[in-house]
Amino acid sequence: xxxxxxxxxxxxxxxxxxxxxxxxxxxxxxxxxxxxxxxxxxxxxxxxxxxxxxxxxxxxxxxxxxxxxxxxxxxxxxxxxxxxxxxxxxxxxxxxxxxxxxxxxxxxxxxxxxxxxxxxxxxxxxxxxxxxxxxxxxxxxxxxxxxxxxxxxxxxxxxxxxxxxxxxxxxxxxxxxxxxxxxxxxxxxxxxxxxxxxxxxxxxxxxxxxxxxxxxxxxxxxxxxxxxxxxxxxxxxxxxxxxxxxxxxxxxxxxxxxxxxxxxxxxxxxxxxxxxxxxxxxxxxxxxxxxxxxxxxxxxxxxxxxxxxxxxxxxxxxxxxxxxxxxxxxxxxxxxxxxxxxxxxxxxxxxxxxxxxxxxxxxxxxxxxxxxxxxxxxxxxxxxxxxxxxxxxxxxxxxxxxxxxxxxxxxxxxxxxxxxxxxxxxxxxxxxxxxxxxxxxxxxxxxxxxxxxxxxxxxxxxxxxxxxxxxxxxxxxxxxxxxxxxxxxxxxxxxxxxxxxxxxxxxxxxxxxxxxxxxxxxxxxxxxxxxxxxxxxxxxxxxxxxxxxxxxxxxxxx
Length: 558
Hints:
It is a single chain. The protein is built from 14 helices and 21 strands. By secondary structure, the protein is α+β, with helices and mostly antiparallel strands. Helix 6 runs antiparallel to helix 7. The strands form 4 sheets. It has a 6-stranded antiparallel β-sheet with strand order 8-7-6-11-10-9, sandwiched between helices. It has a 5-stranded parallel β-sheet with strand order 2-1-3-4-5, sandwiched between helices. It has a 5-stranded antiparallel β-sheet with strand order 12-21-20-17-18, covered by helices on one side. It is elongated, with a radius of gyration of 37 Å.
């Protein structure tokens, strides 16, 4: 006999409901000799009260109900039992010596009974019917419980795969284990950048409930709190299970062993278990840090419990590996992207400069934002631009445009000619690409600038009195093979600041770009004079959570 079949046929607490003392005694004695625990009631009201007053742990698992009762029929008793969500799955066996017609038996079954026996009843027949009803009811409850937990496993897996960083992942893993096992849970993982060990604890989630005609309800994931932990904790956990292996491994620990491996903190930390702890570790690649999940060991009593927790741990390990790969890819592309940008700014007498470049935080694609500062025969050329799109091709085009700009500028061409030549280069070599570029030539001596703008955000000028204005003259963006107007000269006072930027700083989906530009202008009026601090203030104010790269180039004319 399988483990499930053996458990499903085990003895139970049975309620015998009959107004005849002799019959109640006989049926009760048969059940007791078979090992069952028997509770008795003499009428319908007493039987229903017995069920209502019993705790969940003491609730009978089956009822043997006589059809003819003094206060109500057994059919009515059965209907009330089945109507209560708490007892709806309780099997009811009708017995009767008088209601023995086919219509009586059909009515009993239609009104909720799980079996119908007519007297005289042989002991073996009653006991076999009780065993069959218990086996079916227990298998059904086990299947419903497993369905809820599989749904919780699916929900928890989606949550860990949806995490965008190490803290979100670890909290989702702890909350998922708590929801899956209806237990306090702790998750331990190394952050995707392999620098910080994170530990998250979650309280037990209440089990999901569902009645016989109600949809399945999956328990909500509880809130989880995360903190940093000693890096050695994960090594100690690996020594108890999994070691250097891959896959999953589970071990049961005493409460003292768990506390020695994962010390608590004043806010509670990992000390959330009343006794023994079930610990599972999972790793998908050799040499990678594993994920650890811990729950109350008493929740691992069922034959499916350990398998479900192991599946969640494996899903967590796969999700963390994806995060770690994404983190490594992101670091690689940022390194590659920065090789396309200037490694330093030139030292030019009479001009202070500061630059900031912030890649978009939520993806690993390379962007096409760039900046440049070049000494030319006519003065200092400041440039900022943006290649359309986020891809390796956009970054390659950005590098080509920047290097071509440097070559043309060193030859001594004026800003308008520079734009014409860059446009011709794009049309010839990259006919499907468009680029925005703003050029500002600061004449030697710093009292006059020339602005040539090819479809880019206009430069923002802050005068010495703190007032600001955009230098809005512009022409078509590059790549359209359209003529560009001459550069526009502007006289500037000593101490003026020029700010060049890409649209990633101020562009917000769904908001008017003019409003964002006005807000930037207002902020620049009160920003610090020191250029590094000025750039940091602008990034703190406008650059949080943006989905596009940000480039800033600030210059003050002394």
